[in-house]
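Page 42, continued from yesterday. The earlier attempt failed because a stray header line got pasted into the input along with the sequence. Redoing it now with the clean sequence only.
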Amino acid sequence: MRFFRLPRFGTGKKGAPSLLSGERLKLTLIALVLLFVSFAISLYLFFPSDALKERVEWEVRTQTPAQLQIGKLDLEFPLSFKGRDVVVKDGIPGRPSLEIASAVLKPAWGTLVGSNPGISFQAEFQGGRVEGTARKKGDLQAYLKGVRFNEPLMKGSSMTAAGTLAEGHFKGAVPLRNGTETELDLRFEQVQVNGLDAIGAGASALSLGTVRLKASGRSNSLKVDEFVASGGELEASGSGSILVFNPMERSRINLNLELRPTQDMDSNLKEMLNLFLKPSRDGSSRLRITGTLASPAVR
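This time it went through. Structure tokens are written below.
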């Protein structure tokens, strides 16, 4: 009786490695490694960074009201791009440019298969950082932490609002478009209004402490779900709505605020506040802010 024998995978001809031999597998792996290394070296040496830099600047300029200038763009390992000396202009006249020391962009691998690919990004600026993802169709998620700011309250005004954006989260689209959902959650710390001596106040600064802002909406209409300032010389709470237009200074606001001076508030500043806003029995004052961001009106 004959038994079936499995075929023997030998070396074939003497001295020649077979398909499954260790020698041939080793040679194949070495060839693949050399191919990858040569490809990586060629990519890094001859990558057209200037062309990509111009493309990124053009995309931002055509898709948003902002302008982007990248001093230098390098390809790094693993596949990512690092920009240095980045300058962002938000398109609002009179606003200073935002300078970013470095920013890293890389593909968001889970989004590359489909019609709406994206990138992940992270950047360090003004003492803090931002990271998130941006998609081809404008969808944006961003997380901010520890970003310092000092911005004018109104165009042409010497008064500024300064502090630190301790934590922030934005989810929506840039620019806003019909049908998009927007979520905004910001927490500011050590907020104060500077330059009050220019309007004759006894103190040059007013502390607002910690400020929390939450807003949500659809398309270009945003509802202010929560606005609270606590722990400072002047406490506040409010709600309202914002209609966002392009450019941003045309956006219309409708906010209702309640102000409550504390015992730490400068007496001269408190008297000045009472001249403009009649306080109620509990000492609080109400005001309404309407108009545009460029020219708000207080009632």
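Notes: The first helix runs from residue 22 to 46.
Reminder to self: strip header lines before submitting.
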